[in-house]
Amino acid sequence: MPPSDPSPYARDLIGYGPNPPHPRWPGDARIAINFVMNYEEGSEYSFLDGDGRSEASLTESPASPVPVGQRDLAGEGMFEYGVRVGFWRVMRLFAERKLPMTIFACALALERHAPAAQAIREAGHDFCCHGWRWVEHFKLSREEEREHIRLAIESLQKTLGSRPLGWYCRYGPSVNTRALLMEEGGFLYDSDCYNDELPYWVLQDGKPQLIVPYSLVTNDSKFGRGVFATSDDYFTFLRDQFDMLYAEGATQPKMMSCGLHLRAIGHPARAVGLARFLDYIQKHDRVWVARRIEIAEHWRKTFPYQPGMEQIAKVGP
């Protein structure tokens, strides 16, 4: 039986299909790789911020034994490790190899760590707004979400010296997120999708928005879910992803997003896997290790929006 609702199906299940556009990456690269540091620690749910609960996600004990309603000091300490120690280790790995990355920046977290904000500015990494706090936007009302976006922009202008040009929610957006981003008007792209290996255009309320997809596949969050146990697991998985994309890139270049969480990958026994992968890709030619804003700007220049390019008519109520 066909669906009874006559309205258009507001999802695109086809995308580019079997013949995606050749992205013409700089240097005739066969693959574009974007490394993302998720800077969240200090903005998570906590008693000190009035949330009435502690956050334990992506820690060594994601199922906290502390009863709901009590402060989890162990969980707080595991978050603190990420920015007290893990941040500096990851920054060193990229500095030693002269490689760029993108910071998915939770604004309040960076307000609380001025040395980290300064180090990010000095290193020249770009940043994408990861919200005012590390909270799920789909739990916010429309007005609450609008206020979070405003607070995040104002905060990042102060800590990192300029407004964010990209946006990414925790896990996934609300049905209002993209409309609110378009209403604000200053975002060149958002990354609130996991459905492709190339950027693409959508229409939201009649206006074009560029999507630069993210990935939870090549993402160290799998340490927190028990998928990766060792640095070998992590390195092997990322290497295999890279190898297939690099081979396909002879005719159909794509992009690869690698998400990093400081309280996970920042530990030595995991960071060694990241270091091996960075060294591995640097042994290949025609690899573009790019900032996310560079990918967005390249796509906007190479494939400027024209009517009919959009893949999704609308996201929202």
UniProtKB/TrEMBL annotation:
Q: Which CDD domains match?
A: CE4_PuuE_SpCDA1
Similarity comment text for this entry:
Belongs to the polysaccharide deacetylase family.
PROSITE patterns hit by this protein? NODB
Question: Which InterPro entries does the entry link to?
Answer: Glyco_hydro/deAcase_b/a-brl, NODB_dom, PuuE
Per the UniProt record, the source organism is Paracraurococcus ruber
* Source taxon at top rank: Bacteria
Query: Taking every annotated instance into account, which residue ranges of this chain make up the domain NodB homology?
Result: 73-290
The protein's name: Chitooligosaccharide deacetylase
- Protein function: Is involved in generating a small heat-stable compound (Nod), an acylated oligomer of N-acetylglucosamine, that stimulates mitosis in various plant protoplasts.
